[in-house]
């Protein structure tokens, strides 16, 4: 452990476009919040940075202190923005970047499935603000996450003279999902306020602008959120066009698997559940199952296996495979529930499930954190047939709640779910990306489910597996220290 206070304390700025509990659309928000808490508990001073979205302007910003103004020069415009700080725990501050013209909107990245047309300027401003916060706080490490903040690492390399206080700072870019890169048209370049000469080679991607690529080229160090995903994205066809860039950075690129914040995701103390339970006493899980069957309008049958999906309805999550097996699943006597939102097509497909399979299937289209906890707790099985999954947190939450994950062997799913067999393992895996392979895995799970004792052993093994942040947090600390040595 490094010194908890004083001049030896490692100061880290961690930037992300979403951070739990302030704004969340997926696992990025949970992963960043939990890593930050874990680093702070282990002696770092963590300065989180995120945009002040509408929800934050209405609530959290009222408890924050104004720190400084910043100006963002973009095409024909100088936009005022301000930095506000709030303490969220010992050695943990959060800095909100307030620019109402950009962030006081109904969505984080867009509305009704359509991205905001000025996302280039919104996240260019954010990336610059990250460097301001790093300077103000005297951070030695600037840890940026995903495309929204990746340009901060590039800008620091390209314009070091603008940030003299950061000459000793080092940057780490964590990729949570390579499928999202921040592509923009070339003619938006002037809006970034960067020298025209900076376009090549870092930002340029097939003639356009690529925010993520700028960080991949110029951050001092790169990570993804699981070792398997790190390997996968360097294979031809798996890196969304950035395989070559990643291969070129192989010596500075590694994978650290995400953990779980067991203060937030734990059936022993989860405030959302009708009854709490533990590996030692599973009785409360039956009450959670009954409650969730009732909530989704299912027959309250304790013997029917309940299979759940809690997911963004987006490409890559394998929802086409779920569609393929749905009839067979319901026909087999299982029940199916889904909580999700995202693509219009998928929302429209899943919304009418209750009338298609009355009493056997339910769907809630929307984003509801409490319901996510209750759905995961109440189900027997969690389906996560992702085509690609950088890490995945939902399967880790399911394990802790004794809900057996059925996952495709890819990315972080391969690294975290252990195949059931004999008296080992805690989930069911399949390889081929097809409805038939998923259905075969579901059938293996259904066979185990028939044997109550074997199933309960499986549940207990998952519930007792340790996926806490502590080991991964130490791996990040090692990288931070190596960057500074
Ligand atoms: P990703 O980040 O790709 O969406 P993860 O499995 O890492 O996948 O994280 C997803 C997170 O978002 C989990 O915390 C999950 O519970 C949550 N989540 C996904 N969809 C919903 C939803 N519709 N309502 C509430 N929470 C959701
Ligand atoms: C991304 C990935 C997911 C990962 C999460 C947190 O959203 O899609 O697999 O768990 O980030 O790192």
TrEMBL record:
<dbReference type="InterPro" id="IPR011835">
    <property type="entry name" value="GS/SS"/>
</dbReference>
<dbReference type="Pfam" id="PF08323">
    <property type="entry name" value="Glyco_transf_5"/>
</dbReference>
<feature type="domain" description="Starch synthase catalytic">
    <location>
        <begin position="11"/>
        <end position="247"/>
    </location>
</feature>
<feature type="binding site">
    <location>
        <position position="24"/>
    </location>
    <ligand>
        <name>ADP-alpha-D-glucose</name>
    </ligand>
</feature>
<dbReference type="Pfam" id="PF00534">
    <property type="entry name" value="Glycos_transf_1"/>
</dbReference>
<feature type="domain" description="Glycosyl transferase family 1">
    <location>
        <begin position="304"/>
        <end position="445"/>
    </location>
</feature>
<dbReference type="InterPro" id="IPR001296">
    <property type="entry name" value="Glyco_trans_1"/>
</dbReference>
<comment type="pathway">
    <text>Glycan biosynthesis; glycogen biosynthesis.</text>
</comment>
<protein>
    <recommendedName>
        <fullName>Glycogen synthase</fullName>
        <ecNumber>2.4.1.21</ecNumber>
    </recommendedName>
</protein>
<comment type="function">
    <text>Synthesizes alpha-1,4-glucan chains using ADP-glucose.</text>
</comment>
<keyword id="KW-0320">Glycogen biosynthesis</keyword>
<dbReference type="GO" id="GO:0004373">
    <property type="term" value="F:alpha-1,4-glucan glucosyltransferase (UDP-glucose donor) activity"/>
</dbReference>
<dbReference type="GO" id="GO:0005978">
    <property type="term" value="P:glycogen biosynthetic process"/>
</dbReference>
<dbReference type="InterPro" id="IPR013534">
    <property type="entry name" value="Starch_synth_cat_dom"/>
</dbReference>
<keyword id="KW-0328">Glycosyltransferase</keyword>
<dbReference type="GO" id="GO:0009011">
    <property type="term" value="F:alpha-1,4-glucan glucosyltransferase (ADP-glucose donor) activity"/>
</dbReference>
<keyword id="KW-0808">Transferase</keyword>
<comment type="similarity">
    <text>Belongs to the glycosyltransferase 1 family. Bacterial/plant glycogen synthase subfamily.</text>
</comment>
